[in-house]
């Protein structure tokens, strides 16, 4: 597997896990952990933005 595809997989996994965590804890009424899941998803988006979709140097 090439490095770009691996970075895409890691980024999408981070976003997916963050959204799953946010949704599951929001249903349970745990807003702090739901917020932390959203933060993790945002970090995943930032990872995708900087490592995958930024122009190569």
Could you please describe the fold and organization of this structure?
- This protein is mainly α and 57 residues long.
- It has one domain.
- The chain has 2 helices and no strands.
Task: Give the topology.
Blueprint: H1 3-28, H2 31-52
Count, helices: 2
> How many domains comprise the coordinates?
1
- Inertia-based shape: elongated
Whole-number radius of gyration? 13 Å
On the 0-100 scale, what is the average pLDDT?
91
Keywords: Membrane, Transmembrane, Transmembrane helix
Sum this structure up briefly.
The protein has 57 residues and is mainly α. It has one domain.
Summarize this structure as a short list of keywords or feature phrases.
57 residues; mainly alpha; 2 helices; 84% helix; membrane; transmembrane; transmembrane helix
């Amino acid at each position: 597997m090439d490095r770009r595809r691996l970075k895409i997989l890691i980024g999408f996994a981070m976003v997916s896990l963050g959204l799953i965590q946010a949704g599951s804890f929001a249903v349970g009424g745990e807003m702090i952990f739901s917020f932390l899941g959203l933060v993790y998803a945002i970090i995943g988006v930032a990872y995708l933005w900087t490592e995958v979709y930024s122009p190569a140097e």
